[in-house]
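A note from the maintainers: we've had questions about how concatenated examples are separated. There is no special marker in the raw files; a new sequence line simply starts the next protein. For clarity in this README we add a label.
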Amino acid sequence: MAKHIVIVGGGLAGTIVGNGLCRQLGDELRSGEVRITMLGNTDRHMYQPGLLYLPFGRFRESELFRDQRKVLDRRVTFHIDAVTNIDVENNRVTCESGMTLDYDYVVIATGSRIRPDQVPGMEEGAHWFYDLDGARKMRDALREFEGGKIVVNVNVPHKCPVAPLEITFMLYDYLKERGLADKTEITYTYPVGRLHTLEPVANWAAPEFDKFGIKSETFFNTKEVDPKKKTVTSEEGTTLEYDMLVAIPPHTGSQVITDSDLGAGGWVPTERETLLREGSTNVFVVGDTTNIPISKAGSTAHFEADTIIDNLSSLVSEGQWARKYDGKVFCFVETGMNSGTYVWFNYTTPPNPGPPSQMLHWFKLAYNRLYWLSARGLL
């Protein structure tokens, strides 16, 4: 009987896994020894990092999307049918339509979602760029902005941990290009006592903020937003006034993870080297869905997906493990509209951001265009 691999989620991580398994298990797929099914929520695949550029007119909406069926290897059976339950005890998933699928291995790639509703007043009073509608509204608001106080309000947890720094630097350059930098005060808030969770990144960012006159307010855990008064208040008792509030909303995992009792907050407890759900031998977890305390970022998803592809293929074809995941993360960081840097690290090596340069900015823009090769697992 054919071994059935089910991939829950059609984002970057799930798509890379599906395409990579097809390449490594080509013989088994041809012979009928293996079949692969993906369950997704939409027929469109979105390049989520492109949303960072949309508010500044640096990306068109049409550039963000491709047909998921065209991105995905044709040997993967693809259903647009949201999963409502993952039963790891009985090796079965249930979909919104009522369809059930039994599996031998499951890869959970359900990602994360923004939850501005968790902060009173944030939905009504803030702008963000983490989804298409939010990025559109922020684009429109920036076009009308003529100066004043901008607060960049960072909440945790959130995916792409360098994005709050990127949006802050890009805001400064955007306002400078429009002649509004001298008419605008930017304040950046962060929940802990520095500008970023990773201390080397925080130490790098502080003098960069000073260079541009960007203010900061640390130990700022958001309590509420008052859209009428245009204020944002922290649990610590600090209140900041704003003319425009740019929020990094808190994130949670997918509802199906909570409903399936697989992890608090939608994050699945995951072994950090095998990427197996803790206590499981056939449940892999990838990308934002894990509870591993490393960056929830596209590169993390990519490197994790590559590890799962190698191990799952090896388990199916050879009955043994291939390798361990070392925690590798690599992120380009935009430091404005025309400069950038990067950070890379793993479980044992801390990040060490270098000085920004135009060349690294162009590398980031080049990767934006190469994303679709990455999703296909060709990069």
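[label: protein 2]
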Amino acid sequence: MRLHTESHLVARIGWLRAAVLGANDGIVSTASLILGVAASGADRQALLVAGVAGLVAGAMSMAAGEYVSVSSQADTEAADLARERAELAADPEHEQRELAAIYVARGVDPATADVVASQMMAHDPLGSHARDELHITDTTAARPVLAALASAGTFTGGAALPLLLAATLPMAWMLAGQAVGSILFLALLGAIGARAGGAAVGKPVARVMFWGALAMGLTAGIGKLVGTAV
């Protein structure tokens, strides 16, 4: 008999979230920084210095923040698994009844739930409780280093796009070109993220464009006010 295999996109949630967040933040923060400095009347050298500094600082901040936050999740998961391991060693019968009760709550009849729980306990007791009681699986398990690298890498990639515009656009077109170009980059990112996650494109694209345009508009306005005051 030929088995039907399915490819579910939920397995992409971990890396996709970090990748979209990093790239989006890279585009928005770097473009906003460049627009703010440009609106103040600074020259191209100042724009590039500000952009590169924002890229490096942002990438390191994303990596550190993601590592710390995901490490906290990993510590919690490890503590829960250690507690579950101790409970299995101390009272395996109670843990088997607990597992059966979980299956009953999901709609399995009590007799079948008892049989399934017995078989799961014989096969992999800790893995069964991790999955069905704690909701910890290989797909959802915290991976701090991977999350940090993904966030830093995608932030750098995103930040490089407005930085490239700052290096190549004529100064007379810098504000308009940077704003339009960065919003288009955001739209492309939203479309790629939606496609990778199997979602419709419209809402993600509109969402990233709106918030990106708002952030860039506010920063450019502040830069204009500061430049005028100075």
